[in-house]
Amino acid sequence: MDTKIACVEATSQYPFLLFFFGVIATAAYIKLNEKLTLFQVLAAVVGLRSIRRNWKINLMHAATILVPGMLWVYLSGNCLELLK
Question: What is the rounded end-to-end Cα distance, in angstroms, of the chain?
Fold first, then answer.
């Protein structure tokens, strides 16, 4: 197996968990803030339902995408350097 692919696979579990918990936290905040049902929250999270957005929701969405992505790039790069 290619070492780059091995590093990506080996380091993807922690960023995935961060992304998953970020989505859950954002959905919980939207549910509490907007007083929606679970189905309405899921529709809002995937963009099928319009909600009032505030800076907290925007920050949570950005952090949910950026933090796991940056961690994954860092861990993959660190793994590749260790294999050299």
Answer: 15
Q: Which residues of 4-15 are buried (b: 16+ CB within 10 A; e: fewer)?
A: eeebbeebeeeb
Q: Could you give the angle at which helices 13-34 and 55-83 cross, rounded to 10 degrees?
A: 180
Query: Encoding tokens for residue 9?
Result: 């696979």
Neighbours of 41 (CB within 10 A): 20
Going residue by residue through the chain, which has 84 residues, state the pLDDT in tens, using 9 for 90 and above.
566 677 777 777 888 999 999 999 999 999 998 889 989 998 988 889 888 888 998 999 999 999 999 988 888 777 777 666
Residues 6+ apart with CB under 8 A from 19: 64, 65, 68
